Amino acid sequence: MTIPTDIRLPATQLAGVSKSYESSSGPAPVLRDVSLGFPQGAMTAVMGPSGSGKTTLLHCAAGLDRPTSGQVLLGGTDLSQCDERELTHIRRDRIGFVFQQFNLLPMLTAYENVALPLRLGRRAPKRAVVMEALRQVGLEGREKRRPAELSGGQQQRVAIARTLVAEPEIVYADEPTGALDTATGRQVMGLLREAVDRAGRTVVMVTHDPHAAAWADRVVFLVDGQIVGKLDHPTAEQVAAYVSG
Ligand SMILES: Nc1ncnc2c1ncn2[C@@H]1O[C@H](COP(=O)(O)OP(=O)(O)OP(=O)(O)O)[C@@H](O)[C@H]1O
Question: Where is the ABC transporter domain (predicted)?
């Protein structure tokens, strides 16, 4: 039985999060009192116009940036109470990231890129575990290639394998399909969806693309730094209709 998104415990909870940047005319608010939970074992998409604060929201939720006020709870940990060293450990050990531009290390092979988070976490990477992660994203036989010898879609699949092999509590993806064509983007979304459905991962993704958002269990809409709406299990058409107002 699938547990409805509404009653799942949040993997991460934002409570009254506000974020301002200093500008020449004083503090410029980017997030305004955002309270939002990302349900465990589900995929949440964050959408909104350019400049509405999506990446800032993701960065505050992931401990890459600090809110000006409010709390970010990852499980029982209040990230706003953590110092930089604690945040570094939390990002390394408990959070996964997938970026638009893949962010692989160019001098390392696909295998070495996937093994890296385990090495950094001082867990000896087992060859079978790394190979299985590569197999799950359809890259068996390509483990010795460097990123430049792989297509964009294949590079993103390496990045997803690298993220999932560390078994993070939550995965944040910023425009994971933004640099990919439609068909390749669909494959990448299929892999993220599988990570949720088969492995029970929690994924939070920023996207501009209604087709990518339609893979999510829930889509939240941000305008001028505020949550203005949510859709559960929407189709791409419903998302597009919502976005165009
Ligand atoms: N480090 C920073 N210093 C100052 N202003 C910033 C900083 N980062 C973001 N901003 C401002 O905050 C606002 C929101 O930016 P953010 O990148 O979160 O928006 P976004 O919704 O992700 O946009 P896009 O869809 O274009 O990527 C923008 O006006 C941006 O200029």
Answer: 12-243
Among 30, 68, 177, 223, residue to substitute to test ligand 1 (most atoms within 8 Å of Cβ): 30
Question: Is residue 55 lining ligand 1, measured as CB closer than 6 Å?
Answer: yes
Does the beta carbon of 50 lie inside 6 Å of ligand 1? yes
Domain spans, the chain: 33-105+168-243
CATH superfamily of 33-105+168-243: P-loop containing nucleotide triphosphate hydrolases (3.40.50.300)
Ligand 1 nearest-atom number relative to CA 65 = 1
Q: Read off the pLDDT of residues 88-108 as tens digits, 9 standing for 90 and up.
A: 999 998 999 999 999 999 999
pTM for this model (two decimals): 0.93
Tens of pLDDT, residue by residue over 222-242, are 999 999 999 999 999 999 999
Strands 43-47, 218-223: parallel, antiparallel or unpaired by DSSP? parallel
| Distance separating alpha carbons of residues 144 and 196, to the nearest angstrom | 28
Q: What is the ipTM of this complex?
A: 0.96
* CB contact at 8 A, 212 and 197: no
Q: What angle do CA 12, 82, 202 make, to 5 degrees?
A: 20
